[in-house]
Amino acid sequence: MAPRSDSQRVTVIGAGVIGLSIAVELADAGHDVTVVADTDTMQTVSAVAAAVWFPYRSERSPMADELLRSSFARFSRLSTDPAAGVEMRAGTVVERIPSTDRSWAADVPGAVEADPRLLPAGASSGIRATLPLVVIPAYLPWLRAQALSRGVAFERRTVTRLGELVGGADTVVIAGGIRGGELLGGDADVFPVRGQVVHVANPGLTDWIIDNDDPAGVTYVFPRRDDVVIGGTSIDGSWDLRVDVDTELAILERAAALVPAIAGQPVVGRAVGLRPARPTIRLERVTQHELPVIAAYGHGGAGVTLSWGTAERVRAMLDDEG
Ligand SMILES: Cc1cc2nc3c(=O)[nH]c(=O)nc-3n(C[C@H](O)[C@H](O)[C@H](O)COP(=O)(O)OP(=O)(O)OC[C@H]3O[C@@H](n4cnc5c(N)ncnc54)[C@H](O)[C@@H]3O)c2cc1C
C-alpha cells in the first residue's frame, strides 16, 4: 500500500497470534510497524492452541460477538489459500447442560441441531457446524511471513517499561497475552487457565468434536493434517507449565471413548499453555503513560478465534484517533 500522510510508527509488543494479526492489519493500513517480543512465536501460548474457531473461556458480549463474526469471515477467506493453514471443517459441539450458551452458532452458516443418535452418552443436545480449524504449525509461520512481506520489523527482546519506546514509536500496542498488564502497572483481572494437550498421529480423521462439559473433564479432538490435537484441561489460576503424565493418560482415555479411532495412535507431541483469561478482553486506549497505548490482551481460550476481529478494532482505533 502507498505510504499515507498520517502513517504512524507503531510498536506491537507480542508475537503471538494477537500481536502478529495486529501487525499485519496495521501494515496493511499503511502504518510503520515493529513487533517486539521476547519469545519466538512457536514458543508462545498461541503455538499451543488447538485451534478451532470457538468462543471458549472468553468474554461473551455484543463486542465479543462482533470480534467473532469478523474473525470468522477472515478465516473463511483464508481457507481458500492452502498455504495459510486454515481449513473449514465439519464437527460437533456436544451439549450436556440445557442452559449451554449456543449464541455463537447464530452467525455460523449451516449450523444445525446434531443428530442425537450420534452424540455421546449423557449429552442433552449438540450442534453440527463447519468452523475454521487453524493448523497452528502452518498458520503462525505463514502469519509471520505475511507480516515480514509487508515490511514489518521484528525485534527479539523484553520490554521492561514503556519509557524505553519513547522516541521510536508514536503508539504502542500491548499484545502480551498473560503478561499484558505488566507494563501498565499490573492487571489483577488477568489469570491463567492452564491447558494441557497431547498430539497423536492422525488415523485419517477430519471431523472435530468438542465436549467441554464431560463430567470427567473438558475433552476435545481436533484433527489437523498429519496429527490430531487432543485435550484437555482447564485449570483456573494454575501457572504450572509441566506436562503431567497422569493427566495425559486421562485425556487420551476420554478422547478414545469419544472417538474410538484415536485409541492406540502413537503420541507425537505434547504441550501445556496458560490461556490469558480475563472477565473482559482488554481492548482499549490506555491513557496516562509515556506514550499513546492500546491494550489488546485477555482473550482466554479464544485468542485465535478472536484474532482478526481484534486486529481490525485496533486498526479502527488508530484510524479514528490517529
Ligand atoms: C491448550 C490450549 C488450547 C487452546 N485452544 C484454542 C482454540 O482452539 N481456539 C482459540 O481460539 N484459542 C485457543 N487457545 C487460546 C489461545 O492460545 C490464546 O488465547 C492465545 O494464544 C493468546 O494469544 P496472545 O497473542 O494474546 O498471547 P501469547 O501467544 O501468549 O503471546 C504473548 C506475546 O507477548 C510477548 N510479551 C509479553 N510481554 C512482553 C514484554 N514485556 N516484552 C516483550 N515481549 C513480551 C511474548 O513474548 C509473546 O510473544 C488455547 C490455549 C491453550 C493453552
TrEMBL record:
Keyword set includes Oxidoreductase: yes
Top-rank taxon, per record: Bacteria
E.C. number(s) listed in UniProt: 1.4.3.3
Cofactor: FAD
Enzymatic class: oxidoreductase
InterPro entries according to UniProt: DAO, FAD-dep_OxRdtase
Ranges of residues in domain FAD dependent oxidoreductase: 9-314
SUPFAM superfamilies the UniProt entry points to: FAD-linked reductases, C-terminal domain (SSF54373), Nucleotide-binding domain (SSF51971)
Keywords, sorted A to Z: FAD, Flavoprotein, Oxidoreductase
Catalytically driven reaction(s): a D-alpha-amino acid + O2 + H2O = a 2-oxocarboxylate + H2O2 + NH4(+)
Family stated for the protein in its record: Belongs to the DAMOX/DASOX family.
Protein name: D-amino-acid oxidase
